C-alpha cells in the first residue's frame, strides 16, 4: 500500500508522462530524480492501477487475432485484414491489398521471388503498386499453359508482377498438369523446364494461394479436376491444395495419381523455401488453411478477419 506522499509522486510523474507528453528525461530534470527512478514510478503507476492503458483503434481486435495465430502455429508473421460486414468481393480485395503491401515492404535480401497460380494471387498482382526492383527475378512455381483462364496461370502472373516491379521473370514452358506420367517425365528432362524448376526450389520467398478443391474450386472450373477426381480426393481425405498438390487435414500430402502428372514444386520442396507467404480468404477455405498450417507449408499468413476468428475457434474445439 502506497503512502500518500508516494502516491502523489507516482500520480505527478504519470500525469506529466501520459497527459502532458513529457519525456522521462524532462521529468527527471524537473523533479530531481534519476531516469531509473522515473521508469520505476511509471511502472508502479500501472501495477497499482493508477494508470490503465487502453488502445482505442479498430485494429486492436485484428492485431490480437494475429498474435494468437502466430503463437498457435509458430508463424513468423500474420496479417488479419479487418473485413467484418464487407461483401465477398470486398473481402478478397482487402486481402490482396494487404498481401501486396506486405510483400512490397518485405523484399529486403530477396533476389528470387517465387509466385504460384490462382485467382487470389492474380488479384494480388493487380493491386501491386509499380516500383523499381531491378535486382529481383520472378519465378513461376508451376506450369500453366492453356487457352482458358490464362490470366491465373503462374507464367502470366510472374510476367505481370515483373512488369509491376520493373524486373525480370522466368517462364515455365509446360502445362501445370499433363495427360500422362510418361509425358511429365519427358518434359521434366527438357533443359529449359528443368532450369526453371531448379530456380523455383531455390527462391528466397514464395507467394502462394490455398485452394479448396470441393468448394468454389478454380481447379474444377478450369477443368483440371473431374468429378471422378473429386470423388477420389474426398475418399482419400483431401481438404486443400497448394500449387495442384493436395493435402489432408493434418497437412500430409495426398498420394493421388494427379501428383504424377503435375509439373511444378512438390509440397516437400515448398517446405524448404525460407519464407512462404500464403494469401487466403473465405470461410469455405477454413479446413484447407488449417491443413496447410498443420503441414508447416506456410511462414506468413495473410487472411480475413472472419476466417481468422473461425480458425482459432475450430482449434479450440478440436
Automatic annotation (TrEMBL):
Query: What does the UniProt keyword field contain?
Result: DNA-binding, Transcription, Transcription regulation
According to the entry, every stretch annotated as the Sugar-binding domain falls at: 60-313
- InterPro entries the UniProt entry points to: Homeodomain-like_sf, NagB/RpiA_transferase-like, SorC_transcr_regulators, Sugar-bd_dom_put, WH-like_DNA-bd_sf
Please indicate which superkingdom the organism of origin belongs to: Bacteria
- So what family is this one in? Belongs to the SorC transcriptional regulatory family.
Looking up PANTHER family in the UniProt record yields: SUGAR-BINDING TRANSCRIPTIONAL REGULATOR, TRANSCRIPTIONAL REGULATOR-RELATED
Q: What is this protein called?
A: Sugar-binding transcriptional regulator
- What is the organism field in this record? Metabacillus rhizolycopersici
Amino acid at each position: 500500500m502506497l503512502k500518500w506522499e508516494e502516491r502523489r509522486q507516482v500520480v505527478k510523474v504519470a500525469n506529466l508522462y501520459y497527459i502532458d507528453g513529457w519525456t522521462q528525461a524532462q521529468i527527471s530534470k524537473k523533479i530531481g530524480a534519476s531516469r531509473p527512478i522515473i521508469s520505476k514510478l511509471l511502472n508502479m503507476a500501472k501495477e497499482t492501477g493508477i494508470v490503465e492503458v487502453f488502445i482505442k483503434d479498430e485494429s486492436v481486435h485484428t492485431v490480437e487475432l494475429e498474435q494468437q495465430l502466430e503463437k498457435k502455429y509458430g508463424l513468423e508473421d500474420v496479417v488479419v485484414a479487418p473485413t467484418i460486414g464487407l461483401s465477398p468481393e470486398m473481402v478478397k480485395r482487402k486481402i490482396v491489398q494487404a498481401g501486396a503491401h506486405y510483400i512490397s515492404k518485405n523484399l529486403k535480401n530477396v533476389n528470387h521471388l517465387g509466385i504460384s497460380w490462382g485467382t487470389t494471387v492474380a488479384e494480388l498482382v493487380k493491386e501491386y503498386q509499380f516500383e523499381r526492383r531491378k535486382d529481383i527475378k520472378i519465378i513461376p512455381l508451376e506450369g500453366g499453359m492453356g487457352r482458358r483462364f490464362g490470366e491465373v496461370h503462374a507464367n502470366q502472373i510472374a510476367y505481370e508482377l515483373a512488369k509491376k516491379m520493373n524486373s525480370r521473370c522466368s517462364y515455365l514452358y509446360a502445362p501445370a498438369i499433363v495427360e500422362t506420367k510418361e509425358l511429365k517425365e519427358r518434359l521434366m528432362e527438357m533443359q529449359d523446364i528443368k532450369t526453371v524448376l531448379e530456380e523455383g526450389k531455390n527462391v528466397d520467398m514464395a507467394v502462394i494461394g490455398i485452394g479448396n478443391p470441393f468448394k468454389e474450386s478454380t481447379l474444377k472450373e478450369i477443368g483440371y479436376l473431374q468429378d471422378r477426381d473429386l470423388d477420389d480426393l474426398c475418399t482419400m481425405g483431401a481438404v486443400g491444395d497448394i500449387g495442384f498438390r493436395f493435402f489432408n487435414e493434418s497437412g500430409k500430402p495426398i498420394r493421388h495419381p494427379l501428383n504424377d502428372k503435375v509439373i511444378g514444386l512438390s509440397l516437400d520442396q515448398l517446405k524448404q523455401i525460407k519464407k512462404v507467404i500464403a494469401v487466403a480468404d473465405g470461410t469455405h477455405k477454413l479446413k484447407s488453411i488449417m491443413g496447410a498450417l498443420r503441414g508447416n507449408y506456410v511462414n506468413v499468413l495473410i487472411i480475413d478477419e472472419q476466417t481468422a476468428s473461425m480458425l482459432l475457434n475450430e482449434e479450440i474445439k478440436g
